[in-house]
UniProtKB/TrEMBL annotation, chains A, B:
Domain Toprim span(s) in chain numbering: 83-178
Protein name: Recombination protein RecR
Gene that encodes the chain: recR
Top-level taxon of origin: Bacteria
One BP annotation, GO: DNA recombination
Function per UniProt: May play a role in DNA repair. It seems to be involved in an RecBC-independent recombinational process of DNA repair. It may act with RecF and RecO.
GO-annotated molecular function: DNA binding; zinc ion binding
Family: Belongs to the RecR family.
InterPro entries associated with the record: DNA_Rcmb_RecR, Rcmb_RecR, Rcmb_RecR_Znf, TOPRIM_dom, TOPRIM_RecR
Pfam families on file: RecR_C, RecR_HhH, RecR_ZnF, Toprim_4
Swiss-Prot/TrEMBL keywords: DNA damage, DNA recombination, DNA repair, Metal-binding, Zinc, Zinc-finger
């Protein structure tokens, strides 16, 4: 804004809201006004919840999930099959797979993918912790659910190499046509994979 | 999510973030994860700023602007022409006009528009306060900058009626083609207004 139109505390709130993904400078102003209008119903509770989460947030030392307890909700869930571990790049992927609710499994968050150009090597990821976890003998199957990118696939291969000779089943997500997807819009790589992995009707 | 995957504090943060305009359930999760990743750079400061704004926010008793001081930053700005008052529906409109930085004026926030169907009458808006403000004799021109909707125009007419006989100039925003707009996409009402209010080149 050209001139100050409101108090510095509100300007600061707008500036910080604009850094939240999904909000920009303009929607941050709209969000701030909405929060102020809903001061008691939304702004107060949100401010409290954020402070609470800020104080209590922890990274699970077993799987890398974000939680307020360590070990996390998933690692301590007795109804989950802790011998089936899905390896993901980050916590967002873990939460996305949980929304699908396909498997009642445990997870391992790598914290990224190998990327020599960005200076990210095996020591920057939780690969050693994953190998240690496998060595305890409690894990029977690892599902490598990294993104289908070059870095993701390189990471998957590196992990497989590290587990060489251990008594564990390692699988990866199937490639194929997304459910609801139209062939016309898919790239050749996906179509080749979908054809090769065709299943009988 | 089908099963709990994280602590209740973080679930609550996600739920409340999803109520912020511009964020939905999915982007609220992404926002929460981003806040947690940037715990010290963003989550802490944002939580503090929100609490600070929550504690200090005030509605200016003169103009209705949102601020942390009453009278607000605009009403106490000695470099502004306090005799020129722009009447707007809500604070978002005030801030939008300030971004345009066209006039160095004061404002009056109505708090909505007359809308008999929604049960909003003159007493629900700050029209009486506006009339009082004009009666002090310090205001020389009112620019009615309400939205170009039926309710906005009805409100403009009502205000003009209330000011009948007082020594004040009342104007409204010009109707016309938006700058950068294409004629092809404009409605007939706008084109008629733009033609009638044509200016010489």
């Amino acid at each position: 804004m050209a001139k100050r139109v409101t108090g510095p505390e509100i300007e600061k709130l707008i500036q910080l809201l604009a850094k939240v993904p999904g909000l920009g400078p303009r929607s941050a102003r709209r969000a701030a006004l909405h929060l102020i209008k809903k001061r008691d119903q939304l702004m107060g509770p949100l401010s409290g919840a954020m402070q609470d989460a800020y104080d209590k947030v922890k990274i699970c030392s077993t799987c890398g999930n974000v939680d307020t307890a360590d070990p996390c909700t998933i690692c301590t869930d007795p109804t989950r099959d802790q011998s089936l571990v899905i390896v993901v790049e980050d916590v967002g992927d873990l939460w996305a797979l949980e929304r699908a609710a396909a498997l009642n499994a445990a997870y391992h968050v790598l914290g990224g993918t190998l990327s020599p150009l960005d200076g990210i090597g095996p020591d920057d990821l939780t690969i050693a912790a994953l190998v240690d976890r496998v060595k305890t003998g409690e894990v029977k199957e690892l599902i490598i659910a990294v993104n289908a990118t070059v870095e993701g696939q390189a990471t998957a291969h590196y992990i497989t190499d590290q587990l060489e000779g251990m008594d564990i089943k390692v699988t990866r997500l199937a490639h194929g046509v997304p459910v609801g997807g139209e062939l016309d819009y898919l790239d050749e790589g996906t179509l080749v994979a979908a054809l090769r992995s065709r299943t009988s009707l």
